[in-house]
# Entry
Amino acid sequence: MLRYLDIQNVAVIDSLHVTLERGMTVLTGETGAGKSMVIDAVNMILGARTNKALVRYGTDRAFVQAFFEAEGAVLEKLTEYGIEAEDGEVCISREITADGRSVARINGVLAPLNVLRDISGMLVNIHGQQDSQALLNPARHVEFLDGFAGNSALMEGYKAAYDAARETRKRLDALNMDEQERFRRVDLLRYQTEELEQAALVPGEREELEERRAVIANSGKIAEAVEQAYGLIYENDAFSAYDAVSGAANALGGIAGFGEEFAELHRKLTDVQYALSDAAHELRSCGDRMEFDPRILEDLEERLDVLHKIERKYGGSVEAALEYYEKASAELLDLDDCENQTAALAEELQRREKALELAADKLSKSRQKAAGALAEGIRAALLDLDMPKAAFSVDIKRKDACGPNGRDSVEFLFSANPGEPQKPLAQIASGGELSRVMLALKSILADTDGVDTLIFDEIDTGVSGRAAWKIARKMQELGKAKQVLCVSHQPQLAAAAGHHFLIEKTEKNGRTVTGVRGLDAAGREAELARMIDGGAVTETARSHAREMLINARSGI
# Structure
């Protein structure tokens, strides 16, 4: 569960802090107040792609930090990545500098984006208008079905079989090329592997050499600083840090016997004295080693030139070049022993394709079994969302060949009105209908995905009146088992929430800033009145707002 969110210098937000509770929470505010910036900030900690445009003008960095309560699978995944989580607390932060660099941390540990996405994806799901649009893309439907069916393990096994068969097919195709082409390929691979062998690559070498180059290139500046530091510790006639600390230690040594407090202070100063002595010796040793040698610098530059050339040619890093070397060497061995390798690979491909077919069949059976239950669940949810006559089904067709996601073509079919044939969503669903179908789908998937926090970003777009009340009711139901955060323009959803925050834009020192404040009963009434009348807070609107809040508490 998301407990606390801290946003600093993100677009129009200079500083925003919010403490969140379980249940349903709504964020409202006028158009342009900055609600989308709050969602952008949350997306930052979920590993979304970012750019320097998010950094508030006039500042050097944007920063977002979120605290979560986590358990079970999340903590196990953190342990896999070597990240500790005391008392189930997970702190995720991300910083973007004005020049576009990004740094993410999980519980203080630097985290690559793939790790950030893996962990945060188990904590939070964000659903917005673009997710509703995903329903128009049949290629995404198989993902939704697999999520409902719990096919992650089957899908993982299938992908492993698919990748293995594809790699074997690729190797076999390479051997089956014509002889002249094979000779050309052998020459190229031999040249490349020899070049990489001569480069004698070592992981991390470039970074180490660049650090050494920086030290040598700045040896004069470093030597001067080291000498100055050494002098201040030992050799400064006017003031010597070592003499001052030694004098203080000696002074306390005379009273150390008068009490533990004085003895402890004497020990601390003695420790500082020894530490200064050690530091001075290290500084002297460092200064003695610090010598500018143009020949060493020239050798470093030459080696770095070699590494940069290799990196440009073979994948952008020493590690990528080493990986390419392994693959190229294996292919070269295959080509050198073409006849024997062809027979062996053909046999291997047959085994791998059989394993792939078995994995595809298991996946297909699971999808077929889950399709009916998913369709039934969505129809029931649509009934709750004021679409009692809607029809929904999951159409699964078997493809001629296995693809990255199996051998099934999955598409959702829909009809909003009785008597109308079911058709693909892209052909018939309106914006409001799409929003409700997506909410129905997400409400069902919420029971299976294990994610504790759901954020809905204006998913109620295109609906109003009775349909908006139905959506609000569905959000309330979700909030009983999950933490639900909604960004909405609909007063019905605002009334249904257990907690209400207002996002508002003000002027501070001549700059526009976005802030957030929690609303009490009077504040909620005023905000609902504004949402109802589109800005004006009339007594009629207030009366309507009070009625909405009463209806929401009584179950709409």
The longest strand covers residues 391-403. The mean pLDDT is 86. The CA atoms of residues 196 and 325 lie 7 Å apart. The radius of gyration is 32 Å.
